[in-house]
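Narrative summary of target 7.
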Amino acid sequence: MVRRQGWILLNDRLTAELKWVGEGTLLVGVCGEIEADTAGTVREVLVRACDQATQVVFDLGRVSFIDSTGLGVIVAASTRPSQKGAEFSLLRPPPSVLRTLQLFGLDALISDMGQLDP
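Modeled conformation, tokenized:
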């Protein structure tokens, strides 16, 4: 298992941070907007994370906007780990992103992981 971590420039509008925070737990943070132009890149990062970790925590704390394409990425990522017995959760969505998650019932994926200090 390759354990890379740190900030990665995904494109000119989006960066991601990968950080191992415990045995098998990978924290994936994204900074920017998750929308039609960036969703494929975010999907690729999450798929790789889900393939490497037993628990993936997607930190939305620096996401400024998410559209329906981004929501689709979250839905796909949330079902992928369960096929391997792994877990997927969301962390720290800002108010505007939280409202969008609530509208689509995805707020159930939000974890209260106070022990993590992203």
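The chain has one domain: 6-109.
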